[in-house]
What does this fold into?
Amino acid sequence: DTAVSQTPKYLVTQMGNDKSIKCEQNLGHDTMYWYKQDSKKFLKIMFSYNNKELIINETVPNRFSPKSPDKAHLNLHINSLELGDSAVYFCASSDLRGPYEQYFGPGTRLTVT
Amino acid sequence: AQTVTQSQPEMSVQEAETVTLSCTYDTSENNYYLFWYKQPPSRQMILVIRQEAYKQQNATENRFSVNFQKAAKSFSLKISDSQLGDTAMYFCAFMKPTRVGNQFYFGTGTSLTVIP
It folds into this structure.
């Protein structure tokens, strides 16, 4: 069974469009995260959310917004896509009570043309 | 904010040899956790090994072991008997548990190539 899943795995879209990436975890974790990995493989935290509090990296444009319909899901919505948004986006989850390692989804490669 | 530094952007090792990847971090915290993650070309992030800061004993997982030097804030990864499947990007990560969520900080990664 897949622990953390993301859909779609690949997303190609045009500038200005609005898109969403879905993330689901079946580990019973209480905290979920979104990361952006650029072409140099740098991992940048975007959001963390634990059902009570959303922590936003202040450098993330407000065109990005996480939506959590329930504890097992944290979807990423992106409005007015720009060329610089092209990257691989990873969803991850962890347990606030431990063990603390993060489990990652397979990543979504977003290409904005 | 915590910082994690991986000073070796790229490394290579002969198959069956041993290689050590370095990682240093900066923190004033006393309670924290350290991890090494592997990202092969498939791009899936895979946990390699974890270390609790309160444990003095270095963690080991089969061919993977760490040298954790708390005072020096150093957390290096040693891969023994390197295999072709070890070719990947390796990320060092620092985690600070908090009331509202675990805060993770990743290094910039080391690209390891195992040469046949």
Q: What stands out?
A: Chain A touches chain B through 27 residues (CB under 8 Å). Chain A has a mean pLDDT of 92.
